[in-house]
Amino acid sequence: MLLSEIMKNTGAKLLFGEKDVDISALVYDSRKITKGCVFVCIKGEKFDGHDAAVEAVREGAAAVVVQKEVEGLNKTGCSCYICDDTRYALAFMSANWFGNPASKLKTIGITGTKGKTTTTYLIKSILEHAGRKCGLIGTIETIIGDEHIPAKNTTPESYVLQESFAKMVAAGLDTVVMEVSSQGLMQHRTQGFIFDFGIFTNLSPDHIAPGEHASFEEYLNCKAMLFKQCRVGIANGDDEHVGEVMKGHTCTLETFGMGETNDLRATDMVLDKEPGHLGVSFNTDGLMKLSVKIPTPGRFSVYNALCAIAICRHFNITDGDIKEALLKTQVKGRIEKVKVSDEFTLLIDYAHNAMALESILTTLREYDPGRLVCLFGCGGNRAKSRRFEMGEVSGRLADFTIITSDNPRFEEPLDIIADIKTGISKTTGEYIEIPDRKEAIRYAIKNGRRGDIIILAGKGHEDYQEIKGVKHPMDERVLISEILKEENIAVS
Description:
Layout: H1 3-6, E1 13-16, E2 26-27, E3 38-40, H2 53-58, E4 63-66, E5 79-82, H3 86-97, E6 106-111, H4 116-129, E7 134-137, E8 141-144, E9 147-150, H5 158-170, E10 175-179, H6 182-186, E11 195-200, H7 216-224, E12 230-236, H8 242-245, E13 252-257, E14 264-274, E15 277-286, E16 291-294, H9 299-312, H10 319-328, E17 336-337, E18 345-349, H11 354-365, E19 372-376, H12 384-397, E20 400-403, H13 413-424, E21 430-433, H14 437-446, E22 453-457, E23 464-467, E24 470-473, H15 476-486
Helix pairs in contact: 3-5, 4-9, 4-10, 11-12, 12-13
């Protein structure tokens, strides 16, 4: 492809050299230079691609894209474009390189603090139940037809994203639903195309740390970017920050929620509780009138389902298809029920910070359990404050806490557990300490009582445990299966 074609819509200007150079590859990693490629210099947290620009040309790059002038580059004989932001340019270059595949798909982007992963799977389930062919990109994986690719980032780099779109088009898919993270928006990974639909779930303080966001205001403003990059915006009208997130939006806008002013409303919510099962039923009013039953508990499950209904309404899907798909969908590691007994309920959830843990425990408390039992640990080489906070939350909201190991990374599990105990000691909550996670789960199952709700928090969809830089296979579903077999516990 000609360099001039790749550079369309980037806003970059030719600094020197020829624009009609034939380019063999688009590269943004200096370790992957190939002869005849165009190298995009990205300034990262630890490495600045501009420092490798001259060497990249020596290794065969025919062209370089920069956001600042590089000494000696004009003497290498390459072509060079300059722009304000090379990440922004890379997004448009990637779209051009892969033939603008997003234009051949219906694109749905979901942003927010909580609910993104679950809602993407709900939408995919409903659309496919109705006969559409839908791809998915998110925290857990990218799904292209029958291919499941484990995720490295919630929102992939723009090149990888456009490559995934191209693969979806080639596989005959007609729709894609994806999670759009604040980091992805801040780093322009989703530029280069306009979403058909942008969705806002909710907003609360998160990802505010060095290397992520400097402040809550920056975090909010990044989320808001999606609604200047989509045609139709669908927002949780009950969220206290919805007005700020939608400020300056360029899309048509509709809302969902429980408040009377929303375009699509949930009413008459009823908690469903049966042995080994927790769910919720509700009706919808406004843009659609449905009676819905979902197999996951709590108010936030209603918001997730309502969000999925709001988007699928635009695809002219029948009421029956929506209701059937919602009843059948189970998202791995998101309030995931694992049947081990008719006496008590066992759930797996990804809640791995205090905010998420408080949300899930508060929700489960509404089901009036015999006991609410929380099993969790905390990741190593992360902020210690998370351990104190999670310990305090579990001690306050759970009847009994089982403190165990999560991903200790390069820390000692017992040191992490000691920090959790510091937090839980501020409460009157009862607890036990069992460092080995499998043994902790065994204890939870063997000591489960009639009416208990047991939540295994923190790992969710993860199928490994990271220790000293090595990811060891560890899937809680597998551990549970092994325990049931070892203890001769039959599950009907």
